[in-house]
C-alpha cells in the first residue's frame, strides 16, 4: 500500500468509469477495498463490520458515475460516502455493544507480518493510547493522512472542511502526539 | 512540549480562527506529507541548517510522524468482483430486487412428489421471534441470495417464510398452483398450511416435501441434510425416501437413501438463525463450510482423517481470528490465515507445549485431545479447558474461574508469543523519517 492513491486518480480511470468500463471499476475496487474497509472499521471500532458499507459505496460510485459527484478523484467520493454510512451505522448502539462484547473474546491467530514485531511492543501500545487521546476530529484527519495517505485537499473533501483546517488539525495532532509520546522520543 | 526557539518561516500565517499549532510544524508536516511547495522546502532546509536545535526539532516531528504510521489492515475477505457491484447497481437502477450473481443454479432432479398439508407455525418464541431481525420483503416468484456473512428473510406470498443463511441461494416459485423452492446452501423454513399445494424444497441431492411446519435444509453440492423442528418432512433422493419427524435429522449424500437419526439438541444446528455459530461434535469438514460461508475465506483441509475430527464450540460475534483460534485448539490442529485462505494442518506428532513458537500460528498446547477444550456460552468469551469427560462443562454453565484464568493466560502466551525487541527503538528506527515509514507497519489491536 503506497502512500498515496495518485496512480488511480488519473483522467483515464474517471473517463473509463463514466463510460461504464467494468475493468476500471475493478481497478478501483482492488485499490480501495482494503483502505475503505479499514477506514470504516476504525470509525465503527469493530474489526468485523463494514464490508456491506464499502460495497454500498462502490455500488453508488457505479450508479452515479454518469452524474456530477464522481469526477476525477474517486477517493474523496468513496471515503466520504463510506464515512457517512459508517456514522449512521455507529449511531446504532448495538454496534458499540457488540464491539464491547467482542473485545472480551479471545486473542487472535494471524499469519505473522512485519508489523507483528511491533504489535505487542510498548511503543505500539503507547502510540495507540496517544492516538486515542486525540480529539475525534483531529484523529480522523490524522488517520486519513497517516493510514490512508490522502492529501490535505482530499481529506478536506471527505470531511467537508477547508484544507486549511486540515493543515491546522495535522499540526495540532503532531504537537499532541509529541507530548504523549515524549518518552519514546530522543531528548532534546 | 514546544521545541527550541524557532524564528517564524516567511510566508505569513493563515487567518483561520483555528490556527495551526505552529507554523514551522505546519511546514514540516507538509514536507513529510509531500504537500510542501518547493519554496517551503527550501525555507525549511534553511531553517534546519540554522541551528542544531532546529534540526533536532525537525527530527522529533519526523519521528512522531514515522511512528504513527499505520499500514492499512489486510481485510479478511477479498474484494468483491466488479460484476457483483454492477449487477447490484443495475438491479437497483431497474428497481428490481437484488440478485447477486452466484454459481449457476443446478437443475433440480425430476423426482416424484405429492401434495401435503402443512400446519401453520407457532411454537413459542424460541426461534421464531428471532427470525424477524432483518428486513423482510414479499415475493411472488423470485430469487434471493446471500453473500458472505449475510442473512436474508423472505415472506412468501402464501404466508410461508424462509430465512436464508450466509452464502446461500434460493429460487422461489410460489403461487396459488405451486410452491417450489430451489435451494443451494442453508435455509430455515416456516411453511404455511395449504392442503392442496405441496411445499417442496428442491436440492441437488433430492427434495424435501413438507408435511409439517418448521424445518431446515442444508444443501451443499450433492449432500442434503434436513432438520425438522416441528411437524414432518418427507425426503426423497434417487436412492430412496424417508420421513423425518420433529426432533430428527436426515442426511443423504450422492443420491444415497436418506438416513434418519434422532437429534437430542438441535439448537446447535439452528444457531445461525441467531447469528451464532455453534458446533457440536461437528466434523472439521462441516466447520470449514460454515467458516467459508460466514467469513468468506477459503478453508484448506489436509487430506486424511483430520477432516473427521469433531469440534464443539460456540460463538456469537467473534471474528474469524477468534473463531479459528478456538476451533483449531479444540481440534488440536494448527491453523494459519493468509490472504483469505485458512490452512489447517495436521497436528505435530509431538503435542508438547509449543507456546513459544515464534509466530502467530496456534499450535496445540499441552496434551489436549480434541474435544477437551470447550468454549462455553460464547457471550462471556471464555475458554475452558477440561480433561476428558470430567472437565466437559455443560452448555450455559460457566467453568470454574481458576481454570478459566489459567486457560486464558495460556492462550495469550500463544497469541503474543512473538519475539519482540526489548527496545522499542528497533521499531522506531525502522520507521524513521524519509519514506522508510513503510516498514513501521503497526497493526491495530491484534
Average pLDDT taken over every residue of chain A:
74
The fraction of residues assigned to DSSP E strands of chain B is: 25-35%
Strand runs of chain B, count: 21
- Please give the most extensive interface between any two protein chains, plus how many residues each contributes: A-B, 81 and 99 residues
Helix content of chain B: 10-25%
- Assembly context of the chains: heterodimer
Content of β-strand of chain A? under 5%
Task: Extract low-pLDDT stretches of chain A.
Answer: 1-7, 93-120
> Which spans of chain B have pLDDT < 50 for at least 5 consecutive residues?
1-17, 95-141, 350-446
**CATH topology assignment of the largest domain in chain B:** Jelly Rolls
Order of helices and strands of chain A: HHHHHHHHHH
Helix share of residues of chain A? 55-70%
Supply the number of structural domains of chain B.
3
Description:
- The complex is a heterodimer of chains A (188) and B (446).
- Chain A is built from ten helices and no strands.
- By secondary structure, chain A is mainly alpha-helical.
- Chain A folds into two domains: 1-106, Rna Polymerase Sigma Factor, Chain: A (Orthogonal Bundle); 116-183, Arc Repressor Mutant, subunit A (Orthogonal Bundle), CATH 1.10.10.
- In chain A, helix 1 crosses helix 2 (22-44), helix 3 (51-63) packs across helix 4 (74-90) and helix 4 crosses helix 9.
- The longest helix of chain A is centred in the first third of the chain and has 23 residues, at 22-44.
- Chain A starts with 10 loop residues before the first helix and ends in an 8-residue tail after the last helix.
- Chain B is elongated.
- Chain B folds into three domains: 23-67, no CATH class; 100-264, Sandwich (Jelly Rolls); 276-415, Phage tail protein beta-alpha-beta fold (3-Layer(bab) Sandwich), CATH 3.55.50.30.
- Chain B has ten helices and 21 strands.
- Chain B starts with 22 loop residues before the first helix and ends in a 16-residue tail after the last helix.
- By secondary structure, chain B is an alpha+beta fold.
- In chain B, the strands form four sheets. In chain B, strands 1, 2, 3, 4, 5, 6, 7, 8, 9, 10, 11, 12, 13 and 14 form a 14-stranded mixed β-sheet that branches. Chain B has a three-stranded mixed β-sheet with strand order 16-19-18, covered by helices on one side.
- The model of chain B is unreliable at 1-17, 95-141 and 350-446 (pLDDT under 50).
- Chain B has helices at residues 23-33, 38-50, 52-67, 82-93, 128-131, 267-270, 284-295, 320-330, 401-415, 425-430; strands at 136-139, 141-145, 152-156, 161-164, 169-174, 179-190, 199-203, 206-210, 214-220, 223-230, 232-237, 240-245, 248-253, 259-262, 277-283, 298-300, 310-315, 334-338, 341-345, 373-376, 382-385.
- The chains are: A mainly alpha (188), B alpha+beta (446).
- Chains A and B meet through helix 2, helix 3, helix 5, helix 6 and helix 7 of A and helix 1, helix 3, helix 4, helix 8 and strand 18 of B.
Amino acid at each position: 500500500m503506497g502512500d498515496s492513491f495518485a496512480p488511480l486518480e488519473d483522467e483515464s480511470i474517471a473517463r473509463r468509469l463514466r463510460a461504464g468500463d467494468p475493468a476500471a471499476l475493478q481497478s478501483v475496487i482492488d485499490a480501495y477495498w482494503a483502505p475503505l474497509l479499514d477506514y470504516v472499521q476504525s470509525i465503527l471500532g469493530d474489526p468485523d463490520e463494514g464490508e456491506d458499507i464499502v460495497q454500498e459505496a462502490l455500488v453508488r460510485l457505479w450508479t452515479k458515475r454518469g452524474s456530477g459527484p464522481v469526477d476525477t478523484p474517486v477517493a474523496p467520493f468513496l471515503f466520504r460516502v463510506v464515512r457517512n454510512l459508517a456514522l449512521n451505522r455507529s449511531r446504532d448502539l448495538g454496534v458499540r455493544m457488540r464491539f464491547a462484547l467482542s473485545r472480551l473474546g479471545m486473542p487472535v491467530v494471524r499469519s505473522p507480518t512485519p508489523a507483528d514485531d511491533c504489535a505487542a511492543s510498548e511503543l505500539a501500545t503507547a502510540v495507540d493510547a496517544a492516538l486515542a487521546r486525540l480529539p475525534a476530529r483531529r484523529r480522523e484527519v490524522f488517520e486519513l493522512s497517516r493510514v490512508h495517505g490522502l492529501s490535505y485537499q482530499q481529506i478536506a473533501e471527505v470531511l467537508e472542511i477547508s484544507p486549511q483546517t486540515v493543515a491546522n488539525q495535522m499540526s495540532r495532532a503532531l504537537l499532541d502526539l509529541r507530548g504523549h509520546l515524549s518518552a519514546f522520543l530522543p531528548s532534546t | 512540549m514546544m521545541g527550541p526557539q524557532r524564528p517564524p518561516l516567511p510566508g505569513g500565517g493563515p487567518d483561520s480562527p483555528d490556527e495551526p499549532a505552529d507554523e514551522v510544524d505546519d511546514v514540516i508536516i507538509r514536507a513529510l506529507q509531500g504537500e510542501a511547495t518547493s519554496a517551503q522546502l527550501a525555507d525549511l532546509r534553511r531553517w534546519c541548517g540554522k541551528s542544531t536545535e532546529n534540526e533536532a526539532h525537525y527530527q522529533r516531528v519526523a519521528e512522531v510522524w514515522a511512528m504513527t504510521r499505520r499500514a492499512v489492515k489486510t481485510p479478511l475477505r477479498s474484494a468483491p468482483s466488479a460484476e457483483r457491484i454492477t449487477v447490484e447497481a443495475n438491479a437497483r437502477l431497474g428497481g428490481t430486487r437484488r440478485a447477486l450473481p452466484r454459481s449457476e443454479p443446478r437443475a433440480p432432479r425430476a423426482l416424484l412428489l405429492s401434495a401435503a398439508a402443512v400446519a401453520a407455525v407457532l411454537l413459542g418464541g424460541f426461534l421464531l421471534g428471532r427470525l424477524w431481525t432483518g428486513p423482510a420483503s414479499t415475493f411472488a416468484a423470485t430469487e434471493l441470495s446471500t453473500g458472505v456473512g449475510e442473512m436474508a428473510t423472505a415472506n412468501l406470498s402464501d404466508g410461508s417464510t424462509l430465512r436464508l443463511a450466509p452464502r446461500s441461494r434460493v429460487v422461489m416459485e410460489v403461487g396459488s398452483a405451486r410452491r417450489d423452492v430451489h435451494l443451494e446452501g442453508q435455509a430455515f423454513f416456516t411453511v404455511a398450511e395449504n392442503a392442496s399445494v405441496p411445499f417442496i424444497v428442491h436440492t441437488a441431492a433430492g427434495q424435501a416435501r413438507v408435511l409439517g411446519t418448521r424445518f431446515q435444509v442444508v444443501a451443499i453440492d450433492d449432500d442434503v441434510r434436513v432438520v425438522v423442528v416441528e411437524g414432518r418432512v418427507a425426503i426423497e433422493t434417487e436412492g430412496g425416501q424417508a420421513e423425518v419427524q420433529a426432533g430428527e435429522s436426515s442426511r443423504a449424500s450422492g443420491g444415497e437413501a436418506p438416513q434418519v437419526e434422532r437429534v437430542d439438541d438441535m439448537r446447535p444446528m439452528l444457531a445461525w438463525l441467531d447469528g451464532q455459530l455453534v458446533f457440536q461434535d461437528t466434523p472439521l469438514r462441516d466447520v470449514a463450510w460454515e467458516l467459508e460461508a460466514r467469513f468468506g475465506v477459503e478453508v484448506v483441509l489436509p487430506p486424511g482423517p483430520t477432516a473427521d475430527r469433531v469440534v464443539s464450540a460456540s460463538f456469537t460475534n467473534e471474528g474469524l481470528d477468534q473463531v479459528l483460534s478456538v476451533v483449531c485448539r479444540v481440534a488440536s490442529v494448527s491453523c494459519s490465515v493468509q490472504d483469505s485462505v485458512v490452512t489447517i494442518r495436521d497436528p505435530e506428532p509431538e503435542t508438547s507445549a509449543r507456546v513459544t513458537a515464534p509466530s502467530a500460528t496456534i499450535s496445540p498446547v499441552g496434551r489436549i485431545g480434541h474435544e477437551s477444550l470447550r468454549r462455553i456460552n460464547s457471550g462471556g468469551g471464555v475458554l475452558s479447558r477440561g480433561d476428558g469427560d470430567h472437565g466437559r462443562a455443560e452448555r450455559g454453565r460457566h467453568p470454574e474461574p481458576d481454570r478459566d484464568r489459567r486457560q486464558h493466560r495460556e492462550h495469550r502466551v500463544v497469541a503474543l508469543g512473538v519475539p519482540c525487541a526489548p527496545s522499542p527503538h528497533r521499531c522506531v528506527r525502522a520507521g524513521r523519517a524519509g519514506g522508510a515509514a513503510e516498514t513501521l507497519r503497526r497493526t491495530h489491536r491484534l
